[in-house]
Amino acid sequence: MAFVVKFDGKSFSLKSADGAQTYNVNPAQQQSWQVALEKQAKQQGFKDTSEMLSKVTVTVPNAGDSQYKIADQFGIGVEGAQVMVEGNVQFADPDLIHTYNEGDLKPDFVTVPVAPEPILGSDAPAGKPETKGAPVEGSEAPAGQTDSVKKQNAIDTLKNPSATAEQRKTAISTYLDGHNGSVEERTKAAIDLLDPNQDYGEQKVRTAKRQEILDVLVEPYKDNDTKKKVFDSLLEHTWVSEKFSDQSMDKVIGEHAKNKYDIDCDPTKWNK
Hints:
The protein has two domains: 110 residues, no CATH class; 129 residues. Helix 9 packs antiparallel against helix 10. The chain is of the alpha+beta class. The protein contains eleven helices and five strands; from the N terminus they run βββααβααβααααααα. The chain has a five-stranded antiparallel sheet with strand order 3-2-1-4-5, sandwiched between helices. It is elongated, with a radius of gyration of 21 Å.
């Protein structure tokens, strides 16, 4: 079972899967790991190593581990494991990860979308001395997944040309279903995924993927009045992008509302 990377604000260490043993990391490793993890954090959309380690669990493989076995170790199901594998963009071959050996300067760090266990004697997560806003008992985040991780997983899955429609739908739903407090809250969350600055591929592909986001967004609402409210709200939003105009985004939204749901939004908003 994989070892868990810990950082107390000063140095790295490794913790056994059962939490019973802690292993020191030598000075040469400390420096090398800091550089490697800083690079990985930015690859995966975090500001720095500290932020990454405060929001997700970072592991190194033990003998016989694969990414799917590590996901299972943390209680992540098959679909969630697929999203996790796709999110670990640092591996050229996701099916090939290397076993950690004592003293390794450049181990394979596997990011697991589960909130880290607190450091013993502190209320803070593994990556920071103190922080606010971490998931608490009773929150709606499944398996400890933070909202930012679910959003990033959705974006990464949408960008992945190998992801299936079902995988995209699962990733989008996982993120949006954490924002079901109100129609407005769910719609606002979807705007982050619809953002025209997200590169989802060439025109037909990115349009189709944004239509998928719209479908998942309105799926919980059975009446067309609520669906129309959602589409109207999106048409009121100002989409800011150097590559795509606000009007082109509105056209995608208005046409999909009409063609898929037979909902007539104000044509002056999109059909110009």
